[in-house]
């Protein structure tokens, strides 16, 4: 048994989870007689071996950073925001709609307007769940899941029935947005081998900084974390639980909405009918869980998952191994993060560990630093 | 279309669409009454759908008409095995229930598609040849008015589901096993003090939900979609979760809620064939189950509807 400090343990647990996740993927490939070494090497070489691959990897990471921050903010306040896909989708459709409706507005006004509107749309969707939680104590896991589907079908309806047909190519796809509303930067794309990398990544890096600053340096962030750590003590100290619940969900949804915005204005340049909840929502959740909710962790986890996702495409063409192995590996990694109690048993804490404050101690629930307890309805 | 014709079309399509929800929601009821939150129903359904389709394609010529029914069992068993992940993670390894359930949802679709690609070398399976068709109860179908509406050209699995839900209600509320299961969901410490094996009961709850969720997925695949692809199970598991809540964690309630959601779903699909409903935009029917669930949760605030210890880990002290 290794003796480590709690701080080292915090770094080792995700690393072991990643390793174990890759191992699960390798085992599954071996069972179906695919070569895992060929798979993983072609994965990394196609994601990082050329400028186009690197550009696409960064582009893939951009929305994940936003959705992961969204998840992490709600998580620090003690909420499990599982509605990231819906919030991102609301942001995506809103930003595209605004750009398409104002083709002649100057870029300096239109682009910020579309970005902010997208964030507000995401915030509004999450805000519903936050308000219901604050006002009625409604479990946010259920409301955000339900809101995902409400947004999914509403967006389909809004785009197909409400949006002017002049803005659409057909019932399932909008027109491509004009340059004055796009996050595309020509020199950046050509620098990275004509990939779809865009200004979104700069917004994402600013987002990471804001997230770090907000949570660590501002009163709002402190209050959100306190309410998450111990709502009773926070109320006793004079903080408004209700206000902080709503704030954290609005911020969470705003970031998730931005994830949709960069997907729309950056990656696809249009909106098209979605039949299932957006991937970037679920992947963002995975990124936040692996990253342990820290700014740097989120950044690194987003890059890792993007390497997997972009490299997986190369792996499929080069090695002929089904792309789905990538998602299996990601799910397995999160499984190991979820059972970190077991991984933790491998190590002995060097000193009587000073653990993070337990979340809402009710005797039966173990503290889980990455999230809150499941379903108190 | 006369009234009986309209009603029988409505009832039979409601039955078809609600059956997968009934089975899966019943699974949710058992898991959550034992104290384990299960948001992984969607993933369990996916595995059930996948395995039943593979079974059906492979053995349709051997078992003939019996194939879809055996497919249900296969889907159930695979769902049970898949739910073992959730059980081990939450019961023994102290994992957060929502995260662990989410892992099931993240894992199942790529795993299913990966296996389809590995087995058939393409992204989705062929259509199955032996599916659940329409069934008429001999004798009952000839009863005037009620016969054509309820028993003629109807869905046989739906009737099975309704009967199963009544049996499961009886098990949960009238047997020793049911009492112990609910005790573990309400107050595991007290149950443990009285000598109930909390871990064992919670395993039972989760595995039953895996079995029923797998059957739910298998019904959907063999009665509605007819094949397996990435888009076979998209949201049915979450709708079943909603039905479980709407049904207040009670088997009969979950069954009735599932029938209602199945009705809403079938209206959004066949609504344009019906008078009156063809004027309502289908979006309202599509979002109805989800909106209703939120409203129900808000209305029930203050009254404890969920099992008290649902979602909380129980760690036996040494």
What does this structure look like?
The complex is a heterodimer of chains A (377) and B (318). Chain A has a domain at 65-306. Chain A contains 15 helices and four strands. Chain A has helices at 6-31, 36-48, 51-76, 84-101, 107-136, 140-162, 186-191, 200-217, 219-229, 231-236, 241-268, 279-290, 295-319, 325-338, 340-344; strands spanning 2-4, 168-170, 173-174, 347-349. In chain A, the strands form two sheets. In chain A, strands 1-4 form a two-stranded parallel ribbon. A two-stranded antiparallel ribbon of chain A has the order 2-3. In chain A, strand 2 (168-170) and strand 3 (173-174) form a beta hairpin. With 318 residues, chain B is an all-alpha fold. Chain B has one domain (3-299): ABC transporter involved in vitamin B12 uptake, BtuC (Orthogonal Bundle). Helices cover 70% and strands 0% of the residues of chain B. Chain B contains twelve helices and no strands. In chain B, helix 3 (67-92) packs antiparallel against helix 9. The mean pLDDT of chain B is 90. Classes of the chains: A mainly alpha (377), B mainly alpha (318). The interface between A and B is large, with 62 and 57 residues.
